[in-house]
Amino acid sequence: MYSFKPLRIGSVAIGFPVVQAALSGYSDWAMRMIARRLGAPYTLCEVVLDRIVIQAGKKTRLKRLRVTADEQPVGGQLMGSDPEEFGRAARELARVGFQVIDINFGCPVKKVLGRCRGGYHLSRPDIALEIVSRVREGVPPEIPVTVKLRRGIDDTRESRDKFYEIFDGAFARGVAAATVHGRTVEQRYVGPSRWSFLTEVKRHAGDRVILGSGDLFTAADCLNMLRETGVDGVTAARGAIGNPWIFRQAQALAAGEPLPPAPSLFEQRAVIEEHYRLAEQIYGLEPCCRQMRKFGIKYAQLHPEPLPVRDAFIQVRRPGEWQGVLDRWYAEDLPGRYPSLAEQADAAETECGV
Question: What is the DSSP letter of 21?
Fold first, then answer.
């Protein structure tokens, strides 16, 4: 049995320290609701541009900014380039119901960097800290502000110094917690996440709340990061796509219980059907089908015949075809499976925004 201190971010009590990360293109309201029902004590909305928040119409609010009471606590993550727009967007996220405002200084995607957003800010501490100040000043004091960082642009001494300048400066300006990913921006998702850097950061941080990120594909990975690095919490990202059971699995391991069996096909089917139903509420009938294909591909990894099931989900174009995949491949309550680490790593190379 492992004893972990309950996680708290400012005024927001979270509890078990394994939470769902912000996942670009994935962690919409539907995914967050499924994760909450399967044990995630806290979730983050997919990153959204400050300008989109400010200019959001009714459809955008439904798809990108939907928050409901039964998913609290939930955080909203912002990305952008202009400090003033960050402040305005943060106020709007707080107004619609997000209990925590997270600032993305970590996204390594090329088009994001080219527009001076995300991880680009790690190269210019003055602008990054101005953004932190504008966000902190823009929301009520009871709303915690957090930041998401990578360990630097690259592994030069200059990049390391800028990381700590932003890190310490952000806490001095009132952030309640920082999530640190163990890769550099330049590294993107290639190569291992350096957990030793998280250990270093936590030692430097002392009592300040630090969450770790990077290479958390299984429940055991989540607990190992907590034990090995001393961080206060961990954020399951790619490991939670298609396996929302990871949060219950981590809780079981932490309680000294054996790893639960992979969910059976009937358990998987029930969750997939509910996920689809929730997604349909925000996207509509036809768009929902397209949106859910990428989730079906990930859910297929838990099926005893993952490749043909994955291919079946890829071929789906209309809602009836989605139901046909479930009727064919989830008709018998067979045992599920845990994908190998190699399978998870291969799939992870095609994903971004984590």
Answer: P
pLDDT at 353: 39
Convert the pLDDT of each residue in 113-140 to its tens digit: 656 677 778 889 999 999 999 999 999 9
Report how far residue 32's alpha carbon sits from residue 311's, in angstroms, rounded to the nearest whole number. Answer: 25
Q: Can you tell me which residue has the tokens 């200084």?
A: 105
- Active site includes 107? yes
How far is 79 from 46, CA to CA, in rounded Å?
10
DSSP-derived letter for residue 326 is H
Task: Name every residue whose Cβ is closer than 8 Å to that of residue 223 and which is 6 or more positions away in sequence.
Answer: 2, 18, 250, 253, 254
Helix, strand, coil percentages (3-state) for the chain, rounded to 5, are: 50, 15, 35
Whether 254 and 13 have beta carbons less than 8 Å apart is answered as no
pTM of the model: 0.92
Grade residue 76 by pLDDT with cuts at 50, 70 and 90. Answer: very high
User: From the CB of residue 100, how many other CB atoms can be counted at a distance below 10 Å?
Assistant: 26
∠ Cα 46 15 163 (to 5°): 55
Residue 318's pLDDT is 87
What is the maximum span of the chain, computed from C-alpha positions, in angstroms? 58
- Which tens digit of pLDDT belongs to each residue from 171-193? 999 999 999 998 888 887 787 88
The 3-state DSSP class for residue 61 equals helix
The CA distance from 78 to 139, in Å, is 13
Produce one character per residue of 235-259: b if its CB has 16 or more CB atoms within 10 Å, e if not. bbbbbbbbbbbbbbbbbbbbeeeee
Phi, psi for residue 260 in degrees, rounded to 5: -60, 150
Residue 193 main-chain phi, psi, to 5 deg: -75, 135
Residues 259-282: pLDDT tens digits? 999 999 999 999 999 999 999 999
Residue 303: both structure tokens together: 């099926």
Provide the pLDDT for residue 51: 82
Catalytic residue among 45, 107, 222, 288: 107
Identify any residues that bridge with 178 across adjacent strands, giving them in sequence order.
Answer: 147, 210
